[in-house]
Design brief:
By secondary structure, the chain is an alpha/beta fold. Strand 2, helix 3 and strand 3 form a beta-alpha-beta unit.
């Protein structure tokens, strides 16, 4: 009789950007993303993710130090591959820095970073972050080309963009949903074989998270917009707890 080894706990990183989006819509300091970070820590979240955008549309520079001071959870700073953002990361020294694509006109991150095509631009940023003891992550599409680029860049972590999977699920396209899920699962397995820790995120909800969470190689999911939206109705504590329960059910 075979014994199945237990899978590692799947970490939940909560992106608190859109708490700051609501704050910035009216100015002032309410609702405070730092309070959101404290709530996430109190209900079992494993990390805080924050994207400091060029236009500061949600998280602001001063939020970063306040978030770091408020909880012991690791901060994952999402950042564009620019000199300005590199200097900010080096000053604040978050646990991790996830390099993401960024266009001023987009509502949210629309796809993965082209780590292969932007290798020469990204490599000095990855090197300086790593030299400062900051764990480098790349937000990429789940493809062999981008994984190979991540390996050449020496990134210990990748986060797979799950947007196409989420859109297919929302549209009720079962065939595309299955194809996207298989693609992510295959690339998570390949990443693990390469010695790269795979994460995933973008567009994940109560309804679509479990098939992604069940991929055994994935170590972390980063979820934000949906949880902040649910918090309007049920509170952030309940929203995070429910997502944690759904993830744990399949791991």
């Amino acid at each position: 009789m075979s014994t199945r080894l237990p899978q590692q706990k799947l970490r939940l990183g909560v992106n608190i950007d859109h708490v700051a989006t609501i704050r910035n819509a009216r100015g002032g300091d309410h609702p405070d993303p730092v309070r959101a970070a404290e709530i996430v820590a109190s209900v079992g979240g494993d990390g805080i993710t924050a994207h400091l955008r060029e236009d500061r549309r949600h998280i602001r520079d001063e939020d970063l130090a306040r978030i770091q001071a408020a909880t012991d959870l690791p901060l994952n700073l999402e950042m564009a591959a620019t000199e300005e953002m590199l200097e900010i990361a080096l000053r604040h020294k978050p646990h991790a820095a996830c390099i993401v694509p960024e266009k001023r006109e987009e509502r949210t991150t629309e796809g993965g970073l082209d780590a292969a095509g932007l290798h020469n631009q990204i490599v000095p940023i990855c090197t300086r972050l790593a030299d400062a003891g900051i764990r480098v992550s790349l937000f990429i599409e789940a493809s062999e080309r981008q994984l190979d680029a991540a390996r050449r860049l020496g990134a210990p972590v990748v986060e797979f963009h799950t947007g196409e999977y989420a859109h297919a699920h929302l549209d009720g396209d079962a065939d595309k949903t299955a194809r996207e899920l298989e693609r992510i699962a295959n690339m998570a397995r390949l990443a693990a074989e390469m010695g790269i820790e795979p994460h995933a995120g973008h567009g994940l909800t109560y309804e679509n998270v479990q098939p992604i969470a069940a991929i055994p190689e994935l170590a972390e999911l980063n979820i934000g917009h949906y949880l902040v939206g649910e918090a309007v109705f049920v509170g952030l504590e309940s929203a995070v707890r429910r997502m944690r329960e759904l993830m744990d059910q399949v791991r």
